[in-house]
Design brief:
The protein is built from 11 helices and 9 strands. The chain has helices at 2-35, 73-82, 86-101, 124-135, 148-153, 155-167, 183-189, 199-203, 209-224, 237-246, 262-274; strands at 40-48, 54-64, 70-71, 109-114, 142-147, 171-177, 194-197, 229-231, 250-251. The chain has an 8-stranded mixed beta barrel with strand order 1-2-4-5-6-7-8-9, surrounded by 4 helices. β4, α4 and β5 (142-147) form a beta-alpha-beta unit. The longest helix has 34 residues, at 2-35. The radius of gyration is 20 Å and the shape is globular. The structure holds ligand C2E and calcium ion (3 copies). Residues 44, 60-61, 72-74, 77, 90, 93, 113-115, 145, 147, 175-176, 199, 233-235, 252-254, 259 line the site of ligand C2E. This is GGDEF-domain containing protein. Residues 23-273 form the EAL domain.
Length: 275
């Protein structure tokens, strides 16, 4: 037991070192990949539930690596946030995403995700707008998704940023709705254009009666505030029917379309055009 006690002490530090090393390796690779414009936007369809029509795409960052493995955003966004690279990464993905979206029908929107730390940047809206102006991309086609957890950190900055994004013509969505500590407060205080119900509620629709009641309460609240609702994480047809009946106008999820590469989006939209 004496030995074990000492070991706990000795083994802890090498573990921390390993984690710090892992992060600094990823951070260096992140910088290199940004320099080489190596990140790729993927696009998940946003669908109008009543018609099944695609109304736009959410851009989701992917990091394709030389070894063929693709790294998801949960692995590298936190490191980009901590190392201060997130703004530049976002602008790079925005640039590529908008250029690719210009090929699509002009009625289709594109939505991007903003990190909580970016809400502190008083020039965020201007930086985004500079990219849109350079590409001649209409701000009305761009949606900005802000996760609810971001708002707890700094509601004042969030309000200023949301207002300036909206003043420039962009649409702002409250993402992961229902997972924060004061969801209703956020809706009351901040001028969102739509809300996205977190997929944890959608997932539990069948199995958990409370989730059904919560989704019903959210949609009725949203409708009285005139806010369209998007349900995330739809994985089966039953959920499409159920959510439509509950008053969700829009949906997103593997059943309606997985995140797609630009090549896959082109094929999909060509197919739609042919009828
Ligand atoms: P999110 O904004 O909530 O995006 C939805 C996530 O759910 C995506 O994961 C998507 O692939 C996944 N998803 C979609 N439909 C389904 C479904 O039916 N079932 C299940 N189980 N999952 C589904 P992904 O691409 O791994 O992104 C994870 C999170 O990373 C995103 O959550 C978003 O918060 C963040 N993220 C992604 N791209 C960016 C980015 O460019 N910038 C920033 N700041 N964050 C990003
Ligand atoms: Ca999102
Ligand atoms: Ca979400
Ligand atoms: Ca999420």
């Amino acid at each position: 037991a004496k030995e074990g006690g000492r070991c706990q002490h000795r083994c802890f530090e090498p573990l921390m070192d390993a984690e710090i090393k892992r992060r600094s390796v990823i951070e260096r690779e992140l910088r290199e990949t940004m320099l080489a414009d190596g990140f790729r936007p993927y696009y998940q369809p946003l669908v109008e539930l009543a018609s099944g029509r695609i109304v736009g795409f959410e851009m989701l960052a992917r990091w394709p690596r030389a070894d063929g493995v693709e790294i998801g955003p949960d692995q590298f966004i936190p490191i980009a946030e901590e190392s201060g690279l997130i703004n530049e990464l976002m602008l790079q993905l925005l640039d590529r995403g908008c250029r690719e979206a210009l090929e699509w029908d002009a009625a289709l929107s594109i939505e991007i995700n903003i990190s909580p730390v970016q809400l502190k940047d008083p020039w965020l809206a201007e930086k985004i707008l500079a990219t849109l102006t350079r590409l001649n991309f209409p701000p009305q086609r761009l949606g900005i998704e802000i996760t609810e957890n971001a708002l707890i950190v700094d509601a004042d900055n969030a309000r200023r940023t949301i207002e300036s994004l909206k003043n420039q013509g962009m649409k702002v969505a409250l993402d992961d709705f229902g997972t924060g500590y004061s969801s209703l407060q956020h809706l009351r205080m901040l001028p969102f254009d739509k809300i996205k119900i977190d997929r944890s509620f959608v997932h539990a629709l069948d199995s958990d009666g409370d989730s059904l009641k919560i989704v019903r309460a959210i949609t009725s609240l949203a409708s009285s505030l005139d806010l369209p609702v998007v349900a995330e994480g739809i994985e089966c047809e039953a959920a499409v029917q159920q959510l439509g009946a509950l008053g969700c106008a829009f949906g997103q999820g593997f059943h309606l379309g997985r995140p797609l590469s630009i090549e896959q989006v082109r094929d999909l939209l060509r197919g739609c055009g042919d009828g």
